Amino acid sequence: MSRMSSRCAGILLVMLAACQGGSSAPGDLTIVSVPPGADLLVDSKPVGKTPYTIETPAAAATRDRNKQLALSHPDRKTWRRSVVLHAHSSQTLTVFLPERGSGDAVGEDFAVEELMLVVKVEEGWMVEVDGRPTTELPSGHGALVAAGTHTLVLRGARGVAHSYRVKVGEPGPAEVQIDEVGEAATGNAAASALEYLGCEGCDKPRRRAPPPADTGTKVDLAINTKPPARVFVDGADSGRTTPLWPSKPLQLAPGVHELGFVTDQGAHFVYKIWIDAEQALNKLIIKQLGGRHSGTVRAEYVGQKR
Description:
This protein has one helix at residues 3-6, and strands at 15-20, 28-34, 39-42, 45-49, 52-55, 65-72, 79-85, 89-96, 115-120, 126-129, 132-133, 135-137, 140-145, 148-155, 161-168, 174-177, 186-187, 191-200, 219-225, 230-233, 236-241, 250-252, 255-262, 268-275, 281-286, 293-295, 298-305.
């Protein structure tokens, strides 16, 4: 990937040319946005919301095609770009949509002057880069970073935190694969000089994050969302609808859980939360489902189910 393709006006490519098809197979391009649910226009025509896959018709599968794309999302800058849909090739394009400031015009161009760093690790770990939380992507935990040396921290249950050092360079994206937390990691050409720095809170120098102990302990979780929504916990209907006030909270076991919020219109938003056993009352406030959240509980927005 060239310098221009890793730092281009408005996007960062997380993965391109995922696979090659046969000589007669059509190509496709999947557009993923962060945050998801952005309106996608192809050649000035609205086609749907992200994530969205554009397929090459069989009759046109013998040649590459140029497409004009645009993404718009509430409170985010609008992104526009011309891309090539390659024949016989499947591609994925991830677009980060920055928040729009008070002085920004709708549709104003924006530029990414950083490189993508993707950390692939088993579920149950929160990943930070230089002290900042990462964003969950289909390919792993992603963050925009400058070229140079960075510190990765993987936080697990009971305060366990494993640290790594990585040098990020071009061509991007840089990918770090951690098959076993606490052991050496591997990286692609853009992720070099990988080093395991140690663990904070481990009984031993290297250790996997232990699963939450099933002690029967329950922790209170108060939730408020806009709009109100039915609450699902780890795929099961809780029978409750937000708001769940502190006087009548949801009770969950300590550890990692998946929360689903289904609105009256049928929209299904998914969040991952980390319940702290030492926190007497955990609070989760989502001012707009699919958007910003706050509170005392650690949470990540996973995406919208269809």
